[in-house]
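Hey all, sorry for the wall of text incoming. These are the two entities for the joint prediction.
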Amino acid sequence: MIGVVGGVGPYAGLDLVAKIFDQTEASTDQDHLPLALLSVPAGIPDRTEFLLGYAKDSPAPALARVILDLEAIGATVVGIPCNSAHAPPIFDVIREELAQAGSRVKLVHMIEEAAEFVRAMHPDLRTVGVLSTTGTRQTGVYAATLGRRGIDALMPDRAVQEAVHGAIYDPEYGIKAQSNPVTPAARESLLNALDHLRERGAEAIILGCTEIPLAITEKLIGDAMIVDPTLILARAMIRELDPEKLKPL
Amino acid sequence: MIGVVGGVGPYAGLDLVAKIFDQTEASTDQDHLPLALLSVPAGIPDRTEFLLGYAKDSPAPALARVILDLEAIGATVVGIPCNSAHAPPIFDVIREELAQAGSRVKLVHMIEEAAEFVRAMHPDLRTVGVLSTTGTRQTGVYAATLGRRGIDALMPDRAVQEAVHGAIYDPEYGIKAQSNPVTPAARESLLNALDHLRERGAEAIILGCTEIPLAITEKLIGDAMIVDPTLILARAMIRELDPEKLKPL
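and here's what came out:
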């Protein structure tokens, strides 16, 4: 069974489940893969606050707990639709906690999968833009993961980075506060940031926070391929559970 | 915790979760209610086939099993986003199985909630149209539930009923085969059926199959209020778990 760690944020969990269903070969209810979503956000400290050092409590133990609960009801392949949770200060601790608990789940790494996808689909790409929370950015997880594949990660300038962070976290217009529909202000900030990265030479741009694909659904902007790690994670999870059920690209 | 019985069908489960999130007062991830979705469609026989007598196996034991699994991971308020599952030949057996297993979950009854909502919001309504699968229709569950509140349920003529059933189940263009996006053919059949019921005197119309709101999102067509039981179920589940989190209508 597929297990989805929801709540980080709730709508990103839903978006991942929708993409898993969309990418599954199915023409009846019964054709779909078994899946559990566990969305218990109240107990999971904010990832960005922790990564930036504003909050002491790591979300890692709570995330590991959710994964173990999913495993207890049958999940064998698990994904976390939150880029920030894949930064080593969080993800490495989750892996340790799972190992200590004797977990046998296959925990798919969204950022490794996204980098591998970009490299495999476009072997000649040199510069890839990344939009993310400031916390994810500061851990350098995308820069390192892309760098290992010979790709330069291009991040926005400071002012644009702050606007991206606001599009996600602003308590009035941010996507975490208003997800369905997303506010025009949040979408506008993200579109500006995409233009900014394209002008600075990004050949493709990764939407490196799972709230961003709720606002940006374009697959191409100008010449730049827009890469959605939630979609890549969805496909990787199907591949790990039952590759015959995976729709062709 | 809220528990959602998914897989009947998978996208209807997702639609219910989206509506629960949408109807929750929340401006951060952590404000959202705890929720589990368990979508294991392969083990749940088709509800309509059973109700029409085409298949011998009742979906009730498998649905009860999912509810017990949700309860085991902490669900206290559970909903099944499938109208057909609320027909007495299925729902009564689910209740019996839960009682025998000593379950303490609050299982919200979507059709009772929908009928109560219509009565409370529009005390003067006399005739309410119902679009549903042929299986749900033949059990008379909507006619009985509305009838107890002094409302006449109006069903489509035979040819239109068959078109509605096709919009849901057709292996080529039906919503269960193509949910995201729904095909124009499925939406067209449902819009025709809505017009048909309005012409015959329906003052409001209940979308009495959880696949239908995936195609019809209008709240009003002509003078007729369009009633979405998935939305009503979402609100009822929040009310049962934590009424302070329920957004005003």
